[in-house]
Amino acid sequence: MLITLDATPLLGVRTGIGRYVEHLVAELPGALGRRGLDAHVQVSTWTARGGAIADLPPGVAQVGRRVPARLVREAWRRWDLPPVEALVGRTDVFHGTNFTSPPTRRAREVVTVHDLTYELHADTVSDASLAYRALVPRALGRGAHVVTPSEAVAAAVRDHYGLAADRVTATPLGVAPAWARAVPATPAWLDAHGLPGDYVVFVGSLDPRKNLARLVDAHARLRAARPDAPALVLAGPAGRAAALGARPGVHLTGFLADGELRALVAGARALALPSLDEGFGLPVLEALAAGRPVVGADIPAVREVAGDHAVLAEPTDTDALAGALEAVVDGPDGEADRAGRRAWAARFTWAACADATVAVYAT
Prior knowledge:
Blueprint lengths: L1 E5 L9 H19 L5 E5 L16 E2 L6 H10 L6 H4 L4 E4 L11 E5 L4 H4 L6 H4 L1 H10 L3 E4 L2 H11 L6 E3 L16 H6 L6 E5 L8 H14 L5 E5 L6 H4 L4 E3 L5 H9 L3 E4 L8 H8 L4 E4 L2 H7 L4 E3 L4 H13 L4 H11 L4 H13 L1
Parallel strand pairs: 1-2, 1-4, 2-3, 4-5, 5-6, 6-7, 8-9, 8-11, 9-10, 11-12, 12-13
């Protein structure tokens, strides 16, 4: 069996979807071996500029022609041309890892639908993401099997598209072991980066669905009631939002390497993720793996990923978010609490994600 994955999310700065593809590709050879399958993995990218992926696992090849992503996606939105075999050669399975499953001549289509934001919160996404409103149904019409990062999204996809249960499979994401070994950033490191010693951290983008403006307002309300409340630190792409960094008590990190980000989260009073919608909420799992409390949106995916280890609030209610921040600040954080968070997070592994994905390929 020859399996090809879209590895375009591995180009450039890796977002949550990039991390998903990175870990899935790394774990697939082992998962195939555990299932006893004679199969090979290769990857392709949709980009006119090309660009080799430097950190592919041994035995995983990069294949395919240089093609402009915008052009081929527009073609696939309208027609079942060009077939993926014309771009990457023969393959038995093609896995579209980022909402887009190309038409095929004979290969089986598998597509990851990370969330339904493009349908349920269309006013918060880009024009490129709105194209999924056509691309996903076209793939489903050809019989593509959907994989999702959580049971919550699997249920939503089945309901929204009227799919039978066996057309959609949840393949929950994992957490890198390094998060469980993370130690807090040193005072010297925090000082060198202009960051306070006591803080709540947000890790994510400026995407409107991340609900960052309400989080900043909720934090301001907490500080008005409690001047000693922790600061708010914004990391990830949001850590470069100069306008938000001008707010009292809000600090920006700029770009951080992976190890620095882990240290920042490990030293936080809590992590906050108040998103209007999430497919999984990887920062929640990473914070729990580091033993840290979580303030999260009371939405299905975050409830699934956090279990009983987060204080949840209605994401559109700023006062509720402020109350959740206060509850975490005043909440228990002893060794037993930290161990419980780590134990919960350890249930989610990238190996299990790959095993579930291979089961779909082999069906």
